[in-house]
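Methods: example folding runs. The two proteins below were folded one after another, and each record is reproduced exactly as written to the output file, sequence line first and structure-token line second.
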Amino acid sequence: MDDDDENDRYRAPALDKGLDILELLAGIDGGLTQAEIAKHMGRNANEFYRMLDRLVKRGYVTKIYGDRYSLTLKLFGLAQLHAPVRRLASYATPLMRELAEQSRQANQLVVFDRGSAVVIAQQEAPGYWGISIRVGSHISLYNTGSGHVLLAFRTPEERAMMIQEYEDEGEDVSELTPEFLSRLDQIRDRGYETMPSLQTAGVVNISAPIIGPDGKAIAALTIPYITIINMPNAPDISQTTQLLVKASQQVSKSIG
């Protein structure tokens, strides 16, 4: 029996259909009608009526504007009940708030979870200006400071497993080169990553690891640094890096 046959052996079509709907709606602003959902999935609209009705009654989906279906926050709430993530965020939040006040910059906490780098906590900048990213966002392992740090502070064997899971999620691994792996070693030696954002012009991502008791990164703390022209007394990028590294060390210590 090949892998495809083995994977199909225990298929649950109704469950697959419900999960397909949730994943589709997660990427859509403004919701979709039943007909639009069916069109996205290449199926008949009548196939989804009962499933949508159950998702609405269970509170995962709601109807907006009369006939459009949209996700509620129930999935987000369930994710927050996941004890290790909730505990890490609770330890980090006060220190993230203090870091934002000292640096005058936003910051975020990112973990690796089942093939994805995921933002689990976000602290806004205290002033008018700052770069933020939504909690729950999935970001790249290869072209973000957070991703680099999550990979750098792991063993080569663990890196390989993380990269395989990332590839299994359908992500592009074309940037995985000997030069990239060498960069990860340099980050580990330096203790943090600094790199221009490849998503937003004018932003420099500064990332440092949250280290667990085993000496490996369990999360990355990142500041998307911007130069604030009308705040001349704000810490410069060098000072901000020092503040970030200190905060990451404090979070690491607090979790034990």
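Second run, written to the same file directly after the first:
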Amino acid sequence: MIEMKVMGIALDVRTNSPIVVLHDLDNRKALPIWIGSAEASAIIRCIEGLVVARPMTHDLVTNIIDKTGYKLEKIEINDVEKETYFATLYLVKDDETLEIDARPSDAIAIAMRAKAPIFVTSNVLLNGSVSTDTAKDEEEAQEFKDFIQNIKPSDFEKLMEGKHEETDQ
């Protein structure tokens, strides 16, 4: 699981659809997820700290969670199928954990209100993320190439000797 934060809301100019953009804590990967207008508005209100006179849907859900004694421990965006993302809310109370299926846009809006962390599985990131730090990626790729070019068979012998010593003890 990779913890991510909401970078912001963007607009897909081709479809006029809002996109919530998540980024990892190192700002190296971004995950764009196309969402509905109502959810985009809810996320924007939270980003901008706007308070409305009456509770909106995501505020209501957060209030229900609080009033029932549960706490939103985290959300996970844990699957993607044919460009449809899936998320789970993790509610905890004492030793009990409830896992509730949700759309990622709703889960994100609720997590932001509850100040709960947002996690994304590596599978989802692999299938949907884009790199935001190409310089760092190129640097790491070069370091790996240099490592591979300079590795000697004796390095493996040393590694295996260490393994044998660990199992002999």
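Comment on the second run: Residues 104 and 144 are 35 Å apart (CA to CA).
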